[in-house]
Amino acid sequence: QPGHKWNFGAGPAMIPRPVLERAQSEFLNYQSTGLSLMELSHRSQPYEDLNNKAQAQLRQLLKVPENYKIVFMQGGGHTQFAAVVYNLVAWRHHQNGAKGDWREIPVDYVVTGSWSAKAAEEAKRLGANTRVVCDAKKSLGAYTGIPAESTWATSDPQGALRQADTASNQKPAYLYYCDNETVNGVEFPFVPSLHDPSVPLVCDMSSNILSRPVDISKFGVIYAGAQKNIGPAGVSVVIIREDLLQTSELKDGLPAVALMMDYKTMVKNNSLYNTPPMFAIYISSLVFDWLLDADAQRVQDGNAALYPHSSFVGVEAAQARNERKAAKLYKALEESRFYRIVVQDKAARSKMNIPFRISAVPKGSDAVADKKKDEEMEAAFVAQAEAKGLLQLAGHRSVGGIRASIYNAMTEEGVDVLIAYLKEFESQY
Ligand code: PMP
């Protein structure tokens, strides 16, 4: 329809229209309190109920086992880069009998894109014994895939190190990776499984949480900033295995965990240690409602009866739709002689963020590309898209190019409109 806007932004990203409409209708009078939710005390019953409901919804959507806690924290993904280090080094230190220098405890990072690289840098900056056990840029030349797990320098299931140059006879505090690299468009098609199982897996799922089912029991900590596939910026969801909350008190040079980053403090206070980002949690809860509502999901699917009501599961419905959307977009890009998909490793292509470039030199030709001219065409692509209501298609400022982000909220129709535009733009050249 003329005037309709399609938001392909990577984050803050599109929020489902029915969620925004419901928020608008409840804005001035939250649940007959006569106040907006933002004006209520975070200690009030309506807010406490909302806090508990949002956690229960997320537990239901992701089938979070009983021995995992769910908390809402502030400070976005970047705060979690640090929180993970403090909390889990303190846990490992406790496991070690609170003996030894915490700086010797290794923390292992799989780096497959700019966010995991940044997380590893933060660990190093905080003084942790940071080991990059896989560096995709080094082994592939760029962040265009995921090196085979058997090549990582992690400890094997017997606890022996695979590569001598990472020597340390201590068990690492954790093995960290980012499930979906938002900037680079690289997504894990598997959960790492070849490492020492007593080393907890820590995963940044900021840009693909709730896009597909996950076996939570394989993880120690999962976190996600809300502003991509959940709701507004301001809240992060953290899912933590209960036993990892056993940490040492300040001893032997171990830095104290700032209370606002302390998982134990958050769990103990049910995410109400201080004033939480209530509005962000409220909108997130409306998104969870929307995902759990079979009728709403059917509308999202263009009213196609794709699953019987009795067998409806929100995340599976989203996954099926996300796979259809990504498959058709990659296919359109692949069939074109004009567009270039950035991620070479097909199995590792993200279903959420799809970066691509333009090249005037047709695929297969040995003519030399004119980089400047290609970049001008990319800028024209983004500008003309904006004029047609296809918004926020520019690639991340660190890499340039074009990026289409197609999270849960993006309909299949939106992807069809983008594909039609791809063809139209290409035909001009
Ligand atoms: N991790 C991932 C995968 C991200 O996409 C982002 C943000 N784009 C971050 C971490 C950082 O999040 P924040 O801006 O909330 O600190």
TrEMBL record:
Catalytic activity: 4-(phosphooxy)-L-threonine + 2-oxoglutarate = (R)-3-hydroxy-2-oxo-4-phosphooxybutanoate + L-glutamate; O-phospho-L-serine + 2-oxoglutarate = 3-phosphooxypyruvate + L-glutamate
GO BP of this protein: L-serine biosynthetic process
Keywords: Amino-acid biosynthesis, Aminotransferase, Pyridoxal phosphate, Serine biosynthesis, Transferase
Record EC number: 2.6.1.52
Enzyme class: transferase
Metabolic or biological pathway, per its Swiss-Prot or TrEMBL entry: Amino-acid biosynthesis; L-serine biosynthesis; L-serine from 3-phospho-D-glycerate: step 2/3
Species in which this protein is naturally found: Linnemannia gamsii
InterPro entries, alphabetized: Aminotrans_V_dom, Aminotrans_V_PyrdxlP_BS, Pser_aminoTfrase, PyrdxlP-dep_Trfase, PyrdxlP-dep_Trfase_major, PyrdxlP-dep_Trfase_small
The family this protein is said to belong to: Belongs to the class-V pyridoxal-phosphate-dependent aminotransferase family. SerC subfamily.
Protein name from the UniProt record: phosphoserine transaminase
Domain Aminotransferase class V: 6-418
An annotated Gene Ontology molecular function: pyridoxal phosphate binding
Organism ancestry: Eukaryota, Fungi, Fungi incertae sedis, Mucoromycota, Mortierellomycotina
Pfam families in the record: Aminotran_5
Cofactor(s) for this UniProt protein: pyridoxal 5'-phosphate
Listed GO CC annotations: cytoplasm
